[in-house]
Amino acid sequence: MTLRIPRRGLAQAFALIVILMIDRAVSPQFFNLHLQDGRLFGSVIDVLNRGTPVALLSLGMVLVIATGGIDLSVGAVMAIAGATAASLADTHSLPVVIGSALAVGLACGLWNGILVAVLRIQPIVATLILMVAGRGIAQLITEGRIVTFTSPDLVWMGNGAVLGLPTPIVIAIGMLLLTGAVVRGTALGLLIEATGGNARASELSGVGTRAMILSVYVWCGICAALAGVIAAADIMGADANNAGLWLELDAILAVVIGGTSLFGGRFSLVLAVAGAMIIQAMNTGILLSGYPPELNLLVKAVVVLAVLLAQSPRLGDLSRFTARWRRSKP
Amino acid sequence: MKASTSVAITAAVLVAGFALCALQFPNIASTRVVANLLTDNAFLGIVAAGMTFVIISGGIDLSVGSVIGFTTVFVALAVERWGIPPFAAFALVLVLCALFGAAMGAVIHVFDLPPFIVTLAGMFLARGISFLLSTESIPITAPIYSAVSDFAIRLPGGGRLTAIAIAMLAILVLSALLLHLTRFGANVYALGGSRTATALMGIPVGSMTIRIYMLSSVLAGLAGIVFSFYTAAGYSLSAVGVELDTIAAVVIGGTLLTGGQGSVIGTFLGVLIQGMIQTYINFDGTLSSWWTKIATGVLLFVFIALQQGLMALARRSSVKPPGVKPVGVST
User: Fold this and answer.
1) Which domains are seen in chain B, by residue range?
2) Which of A144, A199, A300 is nearest residue B328 as measured by Cβ atoms?
3) ipTM higher than the 0.90 cut
4) A76 with A59, same domain?
5) Which residue(s) pair with A40 in the sheet?
């Protein structure tokens, strides 16, 4: 395990370093850090901070994709959770606010999970329902307005700092460690990979595939809700129309960049988060370079295509060949 | 058998929904409202016709909304800034769209990649290019635009069947003929039924895949041209999220997202149902537009659950297949 990850992550680490170097080239102060009011500032911190919503989404998404599924509704779930948190923020204490937002995420995940695992609806279709209806539900909660709040506790979730690091980064690292401990500290990760590899065979060998699938969608919903709370806390308000808009695509992209196949099977949490960071480092780089931000989508499209071609089964034969060749050398 | 059942249910929902609307607001049952409904959803109907082919073949095309946006910007720039005659601009943009769709189909086939992610890349690419072309809304003032928007067939009762509504109806009829009466259409169904079996039957799977995505992109381009007539402008942010409305319309119309089953007439009914919900909300006045999304979501769920139930019934009555389908496999 410990030996496998570095080799698997080589391409992603290389890509991240190259992009950070390009960022450094377009903006010489890129790696500068300074401490102000007990919080670190700098472009690198900015990349980490802005990347947290997608990183959180990708933590849930990578498990869903590992089972061979997909969750298109995470952006809408972000909007619902953000709307819930924002409308409760000024009247309730922080644990209640976060608890109810996460409960909403859990309910959304449970809905998706039941559709996929129990009713056996194709994941892309099942989650499309919530993707379409979710923003409507969020609008219903905010009554069509942009709900703002001033609760300092919730604002701290988006703009505060823990030991100098912005709170969102700390939360994301905490979630990564928690998810990692749960799925890799136990056999759960292996069972999820087995479900994605061959659901029928896993079921016959005694894996509770239905429970696996249900739980990954629930986890994905909770991660999305947390991302929604952070996004709302960051702007001190909930915008049901735009919160998390198209972030589901970024999250899927992050997972794919992280080397997890869309057909399910083997997955890596760390690399999925690294994928999210690669996307954000690209976004920040384009902003810093002064090129029009419109270029962002084009760059993203090229990256998706490059990653896809690298993962293509047809090219896979080629990489197996080179791997054999490398092994045969002393 | 089952395909016609799905379409019949969709038609029943449309008729029942329309009757309910008319009961509450008698004015809805006029040719004026119905003709407007056709005009407002003309571009959606055209792009949904293309999506029907893609989904029946077992694929999906997420790039259509971006292609519409690109087309409106390109046409507006070509006509207003570059001085290209409108019809030459239309031909040019359709050729570009055809190449774009063919490229996506080729990547899907040659590299054996999931259509979902390839067309996602296509969506980013097309939207990115239209942003690069222009980020502002460009009004189109060419004489042909006002001539076309003035043209309409007067219906009894004051309705105006506009040129773009006629264009949509014509394209839907042609698409239905292509899907149901030609060898190409039969191959589309075969591809959605089983790709391997289709290849073994000697049907060129590669060229079929390329032609299907080409058709979808060309129809999205046509929808973009219609959209530019509808708004008389080109804007790179137009038709954001239309791919979702389109997929929803196709699914509500009884087309299976797993492929192999569906019809153009069902898709047309799906488009009309979405338009009807919008019209009802406009008439009501107190309901906000977000109810459209919730209603569409609920309808999507009902239709998908219905399809799932029908399929389960069909499976029970037929011989049990040797291998159970794997759970949670996405396309």
Assistant:
1) 2-315 (1.10.3470)
2) A199
3) no
4) yes
5) A35
Angstrom distance (rounded) from CA A142 to CA A238: 8
Confidence of residue A248 (pLDDT cuts 50, 70, 90): confident
Q: Decide if A9 is inside a domain.
A: no
Answer yes or no: is A128 within a domain: yes
Model pTM?
Answer: 0.84
Residue B107 burial (CB count, 10 A): 23
Consecutive 10-residue averages of pLDDT for chain B (331 residues) = 74 88 85 88 94 93 93 93 90 96 93 85 89 87 83 80 90 94 92 88 91 96 93 85 88 84 91 88 77 83 79 66 48 42
Is A239 a member of any domain? yes
Interface test with A, best of B129, B327, B331 (most A CBs within 10 A): B327
Say if CB A169 and CB A52 are below 8 A apart: yes
**Are residue A218 and residue A199 in the same domain, yes or no?**
yes
pLDDT band, very low/low/confident/very high, at A323 (cuts 50, 70, 90) = low
Q: Which amino acid is at B80?
A: E
- For residue B224, give both structure tokens: 């973009």
Gap between the Cα atoms of B14 and B3, Å rounded: 17
Residues of chain A with Cβ-Cβ distance to B281 below 8 Å are none
Name the domain count of chain A. Answer: 2
Chain A hits for B127, Cβ within 8 Å: 297
